[in-house]
Amino acid sequence: MSTPPHPVGDDDDLTVIRVDQFFPHPPAKVWRALTDPELLAQWQMPGSENFHLEVGHRYRMTSVPRPNTDFSGVVEVSVLGYDVERMLRVRWADADRADGADWTITWMLEQEGRGTRLFLVHEGFDPDDPAQSMARKIMDGGWRSHVMRSLGQTLERLR
CA angle at residue 46 from 59 to 24, to 5 degrees? Predict the structure, then answer.
């Protein structure tokens, strides 16, 4: 068994969310679900269908505004980097608030048997900001439950 590409257990770091999820699908299939705009639209926020795998590409996603986290509901996304079937890094920033969220989301894929271990690292939370702390708490639960479940369902439907 190989070592994960990053520490996965440090829950004491309030600036980051780390998720480690196994999918019984090969990395090529998981990568496709992470980067194919038509598939992204099935499990991510509206607007993800405008994704293009190109460093510097920008697009917007929309969600429900959350005043308790100072989130406007509009996310400006920028592709920061990628390594095909291994890593995708994007920036998420609140499009309507200059003082709002500004996060880096990194997806890392590692083959494990016939499946894929998918690591998510969501960085940039300010633990001294009550709204950011609330956003981290909400998003931590959302990544682990709703998003990973929706991604898994998309993978199951994908041939």
Answer: 100
CB 23 within 8 A of CB 30: yes
Strand order in the sheet with 74-83: 16-23, 115-123, 102-112, 87-94, 74-83, 58-62
Gyration radius of the chain over CA positions: 15
Contacts 24+ apart (CB under 8 A), 145-152: 147/43, 147/44, 148/19, 148/21, 150/42, 150/43, 150/44, 151/23, 151/33, 151/43, 152/23
**pTM of the full predicted structure?**
0.88
Q: Among the residues of 53-147, which ranges form H helices? A: 130-142
Query: Tens of pLDDT along 86-127?
Result: 999 999 998 887 777 899 999 999 999 999 999 999 999 999
Angle of CA points 36, 86, 136, to nearest 5°: 80
